[in-house]
Protein 1
Amino acid sequence: MLKIGVLVSGGGTNLQAVINSINAGETDAEIVGVVSSRAGAYALERAKKNGIDAVFISRKQAGSSEEYERSLIKYFKEKNAELILLAGFMVILTPLFVNAFKGRIMNIHPSLIPAFCGEGFYGLKVHEAALARGVKLTGATVQLVNDEPDGGPIILQKAVEVRDNDTPETLQKRVMEEAEWKLYPEAVKLFAQNRLVLENGRVRIKEKL
Ligand code: GRF
């Protein structure tokens, strides 16, 4: 059974989507621990309600990003996590953490990468930028994390229609409901089934046997 660790900072609806999919028996996996960079993050409650160990690790208290990442690595290694999910985690990770779980970290981003991604594109800002540019389609992307913010190999993408009367808030909600909450559990399932193959910096999805 695949052991998963999750990093969060906020509401944790993507964490919830993965929990639901595991509980529904769609993926043979277990979430072994959730770490939040914010003390009051509702994601911690969601984890606890499901009997998952959940802790707040303070970036400030750690002093440096190196010390912070060392504590994250220690926590997840002690839990024997084999896959790390970034689920609304508002801290940019350095090569120290990325290399500790090389090829085993996923992120979800609320746009069709390479549109509206990279530094500064987080939360509602992504949807504000999409509306300002007037795109007719946006969506979500799940990718493997490497040293470049939002630059890793793409695993799955799903398009979502932009409507004339959308606000950043309505668009964010539709992208979550129609894309994010489906894509993340699906990507985790593919990983658990060993169906993601990295070839020439791209992800190929193996057919199910
Ligand atoms: C999502 O939009 C996700 O794509 C982005 O941050 C948001 C997190 O939301 N990386 P939640 O905490 O999962 O509800």
Protein 2
Amino acid sequence: MEKIALDSYAKVNLYLAVLNRRKDGYHSIKTVFERIGLSDKIILQSRQDQKIKIICSSRQVPKDQTNLAYRSAKLLQDNFKVARGVSIKIIKNIPVGAGLGGGSSNAAAVLSGLNQLWKLKLSQNKLAELAGRIGSDVPFFIYNTSFAQAQGRGEKIKPLKALERIKLWHLLVVPELHVSTPLIYRKWDEFNQKAGLTTPAYNVKILTLALKSKNPLLMRKFLFNALEEVTLKLYPEVIRVKEKLICLGAKATLMSGSGPAVFALISSGKEAVSLCNQLKKEFRFWQVFAVRTC
Ligand code: C5P
């Protein structure tokens, strides 16, 4: 086997509570990830030389050592003394730097794919441990699960098996903005020290029950993202996205990760697709998708 193609899915956070700033500069969080049916394609081609090459037509994707997919291949090469190299082709559909975990998902796909291509025989737990060294959001994508709870800085994963059969529909909107995750966490520190930020009065267990109930009113009540308040303060365009979604009749809206992507809970696929087409016509500078849990 010299070549392998993988789907690399995006995520949204249905819940994200920031607990505190750690000594290492990261923040302890509690989050719930949902994998969604918006994906990049990753094609790995083994090389006889030891080079790692990134091929991607998107100008927003770095082609050098800073690319998380590159770093994943290098980590495996160095740790397991692999004498081969790899060409990594990334066909990009997931908006870059949007809070949808695209780069992290690509990194996880490279770790899983090279485990096969290079016959490393690494366990899922070992891959997840290596993934955590690449980035906080990477381990989630190692597990083949639609929903998972995460703790630590986001790297400690517990798949939520109770939600296995749940399929949610979302309208996903990504305004044309670049939001830096470190900046949003820094501002969270600042705002939290000054005035105190909203903390959720419930936990992941309650959110899980709400999702299982499929009751939109309950779901709306328990969706939460502590970083949303911060990003909304800095980027009013994200408020406009939320207002527009509510105006269209969305039951609930929430920003994903540090943003700027915002998703809405929609009752059916038909409604999600129809609203998606409507929004695409009206807002040329927003990327809009109708997506489902996958
Ligand atoms: O882990 P990752 O490299 O994706 O994190 C990017 C940056 O986001 C970190 O350098 C840190 O500034 C911030 N971060 C954080 N707490 C987390 C996750 C990320 O402060 N739990």
Protein 3
Amino acid sequence: MRHLIAIRDLEREEIEEILEKAAYYKQRGAEMDSLLRGRFVAELFLEPSTRTRFSFEVAAKRLGAEVLHFDGQVSSLTKGESYEDTLRTLEALGVEIAIIRTAENDFFRNVEGKTNLALVNAGAGTWEHPTQALLDLFTLREHFGSLRGLTVGMIGDLAFSRVVGSHMHLLPKFGIHLLLAGAPGMTERKEDPYPPTVKLCGIEEVIREADVVILLRIQRERHREEASFSKEEYLQKYGLTVHRAQGMKPHAMIMHPAPVNRDVELESSLVDSPRSLIFRQVENGVYTRMAVLQTVWEGKKNVQLAHS
Ligand code: CP
């Protein structure tokens, strides 16, 4: 695997290998590694990020890499340089791996095959966020021990969620049932429709049936129209309140890819409750991304060897 672009491109065995590598790095804790010593990794975040950007940076530095930050606002993209030429320029400068966040769903499909950089999708529009889905899977396996037969419920802005775009292909590969629910106008994925394995249902059903409830942020920045409800109304009608959470299975847990809008998609106290795995997800993001960087780096070296 030379790139990590989309979960839908991966075999279950490839994903399992990433999870095993992540477990290895987690067991080593903060210990440094020399896998990428002397190598350059570039972060091109063309949309805002806290967790993904910094966890990739920590991951790359723990593997010994030098990390370069590309700032789109002061780059030659503003002078009309294409994405393809930007990536080829980084490659010519000696960068090996490019970690990219973009607002464009088809960014990776457009540049794939046009650069020798190893490409890592750090979130592409409303299409896929593969490393978020992988770290969620790692967290589920860590907490529950076994994945087969679990029911994961996702509630929120399904229409614009790239996390849903990855999970709808990831979870069924592991025998996990995926139930989805959202407010009116937030469920239809026009550009990237659901596969037949996922089930759309009501919020109360998701809360009652799920072993894990994953809340999703309302992606106001992607909406063309103002929401017809206030934040308070959203929480009461469609969010996870303390009252609604009492209807979850006794063992059921709460997750959220974050950033969390407290008291919108879920009541603030639930974020900090014993049921919440939200900050564990962030912690596991570093180990999962170390595993991803190792995987694409080894893939890139293998391709270079095959061509030498
Ligand atoms: N979950 C996630 O992608 O968070 P950031 O936008 O902060 O990277």
